Amino acid sequence: NKDSHFTMINKGLPCLLFLLKAQNISTRKHAAGALRDLSGNDEYKMEFSKHGCIESLAALGGSRESELQTLAFASLRHLSLMSGLHSLMIECDIVEQAVRHISMAAEDLQCQIAGLFANLSESREHQTGMVKNGVVQAIVALARIENEEIQQDCARALANICANERNQVLIHHHGGLSCLIKLAQSKGDICQRYVAMGLQFLASNTEVRSAIIRENILSPFLELSKSTLLDFQRSSASSLASMSLNKENKSSILRKGGLKDILRLFSHPDLQVQRDAVFAAANLADSLDLHLDIVREGGIAAFLSIRSSTDVRVLRDLSRALSSLSLSDCAIDEMMNGDILKILFKLSRSSDIATQRRASLALCNLSSNGDKLKLLEEGVLKSLLFLSRFPDLEVERCASLAIAALSLGGNITNKVKIIEEGTHRQLAEMIQFPDNEIQRCAALALNGLLLGEHDEIKMRVFRETGSKSILSLISSNDEECVHSGIYMLGSLAENDEIRGALVEIGSIKWLVDKFKLGPIEIKRAAGYFFSLISESAEYHKDMANAGGLETVISLASLVDSECQEYGAFSLAFLASNREYQVPLVNMGAVRPLVSMMATNAESKHYAGMALLKLADNFENHITIAEEGGIQALLRLGRSRVTDEEVQYKAALTVGHLATNAVNQLPKQQVIDKGVGFAAGSWKKRSGVKKMQATEIAREFVNNSLQKSKETT
Q: CA 98 from chain center: how many Å?
């Protein structure tokens, strides 16, 4: 009678506790029964802690009498519904006592203990201690009993304990995972719901996920996806999503046929299941070696089927999967389908920044490896231009890189389409953006447009963007930006009209200043520009005024073969200008030319041409001879790879050098006084005149050339 509970709790509780110690078993049983009935009243549960009831019930639970044990644990089970009493119960070692009774207990007592474990497991602070005291092994033993109530409490206890990440690995080691898989066969809906929760929690742990694959117990999770119970379907999808995070698990999921189940869940009406399925598929797509399997199983079509979804998480993972698949050739052909491109265009305008970034990356990858003309025809430029103006650095970077990929290559049609959309103007604006990464990407795209021999494109870009963006790059503190700007100047300078305009605005001086401190990549790009400027004699004066002559000589003196080739090429043209032949030699142009002629590098030919031109001026002969130029020219004349015209020019130049050397000899009276004795004695004995000396030199060179030809 609940109406009497108030009186019993306030006045009769001490008496009942006293009767629990009576010698008569029947009296103790009746007192224990009364306590069980009183403990079921939620209003008075806390009163039990004031009179030492918990301690008395714990002592009664240790009794050898089975019925008394059952009544004691029944009372404790009722009281454990009050979370405020959990700490006191744990302190009284009730959990350890219950674990000891499992093996010998009757089914009724086992039912009370299972309920007690389920209730106590609700307190998170005691879960770890319960696991360490063997509760999981006890639950595994209880779950074998064919009793629906016991199995339900076991499932609830495991679900609660599994929610604590610190316990998950130990639970698996104690058999908790296998127990949950067995309990999944229970017919009770409530039990199945708790089982689904427990499996989902365990599968979220990295070590447990690896163990699931290692111990070959993935199949039960796949079977749950085919269940008609929504909780099991949710648990399966969530577990597969968690397991797909581990790289080693992905191939096992595929081998067990998990990909088909995951793709099938795309069309599930429950949003939570669909989210987890798409998340799992996106995780699998992160591995390049699985892309072919995803395509074979119809993954592209499955992703296409969820294009109408409005859920942010689904679309976010959809864009992530497509961005990953866009890296593989096996998927690109199917992704070039107009519907997939439309999805990407839509996702690229999403309000979710993560979705937009992934979609931008997918478009960037497709622009690099896909059919560029098809992309342009589908209107990819409109999306890319929109993205390039979006206030997110990652999105802008992907957009500019995609434009760069579309512009690269020799297809003039692609470049014309890009120019007609006004993309170059947007890129020029991005170059002046204060972020170096954006500047680099935009400069790469603009350089891609300027590459090639299409003068009309170069003219339009230069006319509509001007030099402000280039100057912004060259004046940057970032070396990559400076390199891109100089490279752009080289591409523009290939056009004669633009070249003149660049010289007028002082581009030579810009590059001379940057050349002095820049790394080798900047020196190479500057060298190409100088070689183009040096081709035209009308700009030689501008080169000299801006310090370009010294820079070209420094370029030729570098150990880098590409720089040497640009330097030798430039010197070959500059040396053709008689006005600068002597200044070039005085600046030290001979030594790097002689060094290059001693190698088999590509620059050897241009170095020889430059040295021959410098030798045309008699004022340079002494310096050329001192720097080893005569030997270099002799080697040039004897070289088998040199054409006959160059050989003849080299021989003739050596003759001129010899003639000039005779002219520079001291007069007879000076020689007789001891200066240049050997040369003077040779002249006395031979009686050779100046013109004869020239002829002898020429004859010597011709004979040497003839012998070289005969030996070859």
A: 54
